[in-house]
Amino acid sequence: MDQPTHAGRETAAEPSAMRRQVYSLPSLIRDEIWEIEARTRKAISTPQIFSLRTLILAGSGDSYMAARAAADAFVEFSGILPSVQTSLQAGRYTAAQLGPQPPDTPMTICVSSSGEAARLIEAAHAFNHQGGLTIALTANPAGRLAQATALTIPLHLPPFDPAPGVRSYILSLLALQMIAIRFGEVRGRITMDQAMSLRRELAAGADMVERIIEEADTACRNLAQAWLDCPAFEFLAGGPNVGTAAFGAAKILEAVGRHASAVDVEEWNHLNYFIGSPRETATLILFDANSAAQSRTREVFEYLNALGRPWATQGSERPANSPFHIPVRHTLRETFSPVAHTAPLALYAAYFNEMTGERYGRGSAGPWHHSRAGNAVRNSAIIPFFDETAEEARL
Amino acid sequence: MKRYTLETSGNGLTDITEEIKDAVAASGVTAGLVTVMVPHTTAAVTVYSFPDPLGLDDMNQEIGRLIPTRVDFLHQHDTPQDAAGHIKSALIGINATFIIDNRELVLGHSQKIYFFEFDGPRSRQFYVQVAGSA
After folding, report:
1. A46–B123: do the CB atoms touch at under 8 Å?
2. What's the Cα-to-Cα distance from B36 to each of B1, B11, B12, B87, B111, rounded to whole Å?
3. Complex ipTM value
4. Which residues of chain A are within 8 Å of residue B77 when distances are taken between CB atoms?
5. Per-domain residue ranges of chain A
6. Closest Cα in chain A to B72
7. In the CATH scheme, what is the homologous superfamily, with its name and number, of domain A44-203+372-394?
8. I need a surface site. Which of A221, A273, A328, B26 has the fewest CB within 10 A?
9. A8-18 pLDDT tens trace
């Protein structure tokens, strides 16, 4: 594949639903950020926050990625090292392996915008059974997940035209970051003034995301044009942006149905470096000047050139040897930087979708019909793990 | 009225006597009253013995023993330290009035005026109002 050029197919005259979702992010953040703060502040009591011994952030798809992107905030602000788990891992493995625990242990924050993900509902039941404290973080407070958990933190997600989730992802991410700040504040790890300063930093993200979208729009479109015929995509990042990179890969899968993956930049050197078709593997690297991974990431550029991979960078500063760059000018600390990087990744995927004419999620048609209305993930059989009859059924 | 700011480094007492003296001197009042007011609900103003600085630590520790930072306060909007701080502030008080005589603040030989922080470190302020005859 060639490096990006400005030539390519035109996009639709009117922005697609996915692209409009991206453009709506600044106002969404502006409208919801302090409501999220109020809800996360009140949902979990002080004794519950103090009794926290083990924290699990569980989810699937975008929700898992949001948890991955927010995990470092828990470490930095509250000193709590969370375990980020897929719904399957949480419910069918961890809950069983932990065995009976002290009261309210583990605390599991179950992230699902739809509130209907079967595997996560199953996990909530399993942790309840073990005496854990389960909390639903969801935009559907009347859904089955919220009914299964002890506590619910409702997110207000105004309706929007159906498209691969962007707005839901950013709300989940912000809510988790707000919870991390709250845990740090209540446990005395940071002062109330510091906590408010961090919240304002997140709130200021609305204006920042607005500017980033304006500045990155053309570059996202040009990159989509340049890599239009690429069969495979990789997103590289370090730290919290490994979750963001996974979100970027997810949007490619949903928007155009091509193979896409996300890799920690160090792990890439151990694994994906060896892909046998480097010239057909487009590689987008999230690169911020203030990133703890930046020196390692710079080393990778040389390898990418040697491999002949089509590659580009996205971040706060264009590296000297980057062949193409999506500007994401921001001043956020690295822990919050996923907020800045999310919109351009979705924008890039949206343009890609418009240029290919693909239907989101292949329209849930033909061989993909099992995914219609979320059927494949919502209607999977929920197994009461600790029910002996069900145990037999599983064997 | 004069407004002063300070950055507390944690919980405890910060000497603000010189600021009060300066406010009195600047006012030109020869006889009257000076009031110090702390516009916070997790801080206070008080008078304490200054010759032995360890006494200040005693005061801070004792108030902590009297109203410990507990997790079971009903007020959970902010933090346990904040909830305890509200009670400490109310008990110690957020204002104090002193006599001015012959252009000088009247204090006992071992007395100083202290800003008492219960939820530090924080950015804080206090007001000083002087009233009387010139």
Report:
1. no
2. 10, 19, 18, 20, 15
3. 0.74
4. 41-42
5. 44-203+372-394, 207-358
6. A47
7. Glucose-6-phosphate isomerase like protein; domain 1 (3.40.50.10490)
8. B26
9. 456 666 899 99
